[in-house]
């Protein structure tokens, strides 16, 4: 063994230890891992709150400092999750990774990509697809609400994305809290098909925006109703292939045919 190999061993060992530590924190079920994952979720929620409040905060002197601080947090989280993954390439191909990469880009270029900043709220959807968010809610009587909770998050994500879009392209002249509230009011009135008519988007682009909002919004409301009153799937990881969603009365995994032993919550 040459000197270069000897010098390289400590580095590789240190990296392996770091990755092992991150795996235990991000994917473990120990009390320490639970506390870490809970803190990570709280930080994510704070970041999402910042994204929602961005239209109100973007004219304040401290906005850029907050923006770059959030960018640092998102970048550290992305790198840590990659290191904690057993298959980095597969993780990088997932839509949630693309969303996080795009969000990081808008944070690093807040001026050039200001008109796309409203898409940062997709971080909420990305969080809802995170296994760590649901891992500790799998106890009896709680895990059955996972599908309904995800439907609620999907609806909230859509509402805030459309609100941000409407504010950015139609209400920017009324900058600040008042303009954002008007955009939110229009979005909710349109999604619920209430249609008071006191706030209307001008031109063909406004009409097309309202049409798309109503169609997609109604679809998400129907999906939410189905999840609340007619849950169609249970979450139980298949020991063979890892498929998580199955029919409530499934005996075998439909993907690989492995025998399932789904616990009966009624027992």
UniProtKB/TrEMBL annotation:
Ubl conjugation recorded as keyword: no
Domain Potassium channel: 157-228
Segments passing through the bilayer: 32-53, 65-84, 96-122, 151-171, 183-204, 210-229
Membrane topology classification: Multi-pass membrane protein
Pfam families, A to Z: Ion_trans_2
A cellular component annotation (GO) from this entry: voltage-gated potassium channel complex
Alphabetically ordered keywords of this record: Ion channel, Ion transport, Membrane, Transmembrane, Transmembrane helix, Transport
Cell compartments where the protein resides: Membrane
Biological processes annotated in GO: action potential
Gene3D superfamilies: 1.10.287.70
GO molecular function: voltage-gated potassium channel activity
Identification of the protein by name: Ion transporter
Keyword Ion transport: yes
Domain of life of the native organism: Bacteria
């Amino acid at each position: 063994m040459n000197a270069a190999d000897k010098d390289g061993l400590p580095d590789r060992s240190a990296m392996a230890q770091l990755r092992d530590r991150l795996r235990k924190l991000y994917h473990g079920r120990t009390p320490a891992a639970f506390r870490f994952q809970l803190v990570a979720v709280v930080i994510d929620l704070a970041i999402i709150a910042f994204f929602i409040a961005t239209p109100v905060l973007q004219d304040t002197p401290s906005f850029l400092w907050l923006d770059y601080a959030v960018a640092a947090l998102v970048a550290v989280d992305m790198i840590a999750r990659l290191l904690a993954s057993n298959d980095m390439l597969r993780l990088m191909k997932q839509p949630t990774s693309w969303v996080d990469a795009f969000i990081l880009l808008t944070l690093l270029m807040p001026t050039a990509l200001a008109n796309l900043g409203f898409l940062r709220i997709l971080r909420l959807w990305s969080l809802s697809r995170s296994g760590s968010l649901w891992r500790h809610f799998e106890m009896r009587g709680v895990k059955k609400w996972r599908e309904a909770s995800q439907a609620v998050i999907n609806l909230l994500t859509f509402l805030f994305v459309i609100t941000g879009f409407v504010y950015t392209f139609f209400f920017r002249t009324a900058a600040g809290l008042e303009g954002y509230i008007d955009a939110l009011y229009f979005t909710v009135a349109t999604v619920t098909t209430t249609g008071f008519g006191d706030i209307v988007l001008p031109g063909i682009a406004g009409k097309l925006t309202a049409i798309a909002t109503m169609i997609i919004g109604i679809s998400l409301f129907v999906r939410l109703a189905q999840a609340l009153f007619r849950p169609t799937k249970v979450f139980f990881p298949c020991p063979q292939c890892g498929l998580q969603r199955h029919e409530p009365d499934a005996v075998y995994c439909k993907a690989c045919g492995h025998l399932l032993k789904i616990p009966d919550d009624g027992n």
